[in-house]
Amino acid sequence: MRINRVSVTIVFMLVLVVFTTALRAENVLFIGNSYTYGAGSAVLTNGGVPKLFEAIAAAKGKSISTTMLTAGGKDFAFHLKREATLATLSSQRWDWVVIQNLSTQPTHIGNLDQHLNDAEAFYKVIREKAPAAHIMIYETWARADGNAFYSGSSSKTSFVNRAEMNLELRKNYAETEQRLEALEPGDQVAMARVGAAFEKCLSKYPELNLSSGDLHHASADGSYLAALVIYSSVFNDSPSGAIRQFSGVQIDENHARKLQEVATGLWKSERSFKKKKLWQRTKP
Hints:
This protein has about 280 residues and is an alpha/beta fold. It is about 50% helix and about 10% strand.
């Protein structure tokens, strides 16, 4: 029996495409500030949250490469005006672009309207410069108890307490996600609910310290939790069993187990919520 050479060639090409795709690393670009690069803890010298995330993914058999574009204390508006942002977005194919704003911007002591408008502008720039990329919003956390922002009363420069700041962040980041999802059809927008993970962790395991000494930036444990949440959000995979030892950073075994438990619980609840949303969109 003669073998159809055209058919063999087509099959070979398909196998080659599948094999090449499997080998290609996911390229993830992080754009943010000190909450991304890990100021205030040993994570800073390890490449910040992106490199923790990359190491966790690699240990779980995922091939990824991360790039970080950050500047301390800066917001979306800064990055939107920066030539390096546009050049980096256009420099290669990105599978994910993770954007992280100034931590107070989406609250009453910041500027919520600017936050929402800048998030939309960022979305449009990414869609233009890196059309293949999914866009992930990096939800930040309320500052630790004892921070100078908590005065016992709500004013233009302060919050009553951490609960008030947390409530505003959760509400306004949810609105951010909804605004971006409404810009065009598709599933190109996602949220890494790092702030929600911090609150869940502090509620269940108050003995864990997720903040550095400035009661503002994340500790190594906090950055590890952020990396776990981002991992599960990017790959839709449980972060349970993630590695806890990195170059220059080691997470306590008991702490790592609790942090993975929190991140996994959040991932499971998010999966259930997304399935419900998809069903609501597609039901007759």
